[in-house]
Amino acid sequence: MQHGSGDDLFGHYEVKRRIVSLTPLIDVVFLLLIFFMLASTFLQTQTLSVITPPKAASETDSDWTVVEVRVAPGGTFRVDGEAAPVEELSAAIKAALGGDKEAVVSILAEKDVQVQPLISAVEAARQAGARTVATTRVGGGQ
């Protein structure tokens, strides 16, 4: 037997272990990550800034005109007690504001109201020219 031919004293060949490189796997993972990031659709959302009063603010200014908009669970609206369909909500709020720039629109959402009618009421108040819009949940505990 010759030495150096890859076999040992008993005629067995040495098995050399190859080191597996993880670099190609990492490259593929990053390429897939980039692909899915670019291929996914992103929704463009609008933000609505909400200013909450301080905890100690319990008194109200009696000089303000307050327009009350009630939102019922069925998606029905009442402006100062009068029923208003969603298509005419902005016009009804504008009429109730009467051109008063300092008037406050108070949107009172009942307990089981979904979010979309509430958002529609806020948008209608903004379209009617209201500068101050307050939202409150009414009825049914908490």
From TrEMBL:
The keyword Cell membrane appears for this protein: yes
One Pfam family matching this protein: ExbD
Signal peptide (UniProt feature, chain positions): none
MF term (GO), any: transmembrane transporter activity
Main location: membrane
GO cellular component, as recorded: plasma membrane
InterPro entries linked: ExbD
Record key words, sorted: Cell membrane, Membrane, Protein transport, Transmembrane, Transmembrane helix, Transport
Domain of life: Bacteria
Keyword check for Transferase: no
Topology of this chain in the membrane: Single-pass membrane protein; Single-pass type II membrane protein
Annotated localization: Cell membrane
Gene Ontology biological process terms in this record: protein transport
TM annotation in the entry: 20-43
Family, similarity comment: Belongs to the ExbD/TolR family.
Full protein name: Biopolymer transport protein ExbD/TolR
Organism: Tepidicaulis marinus
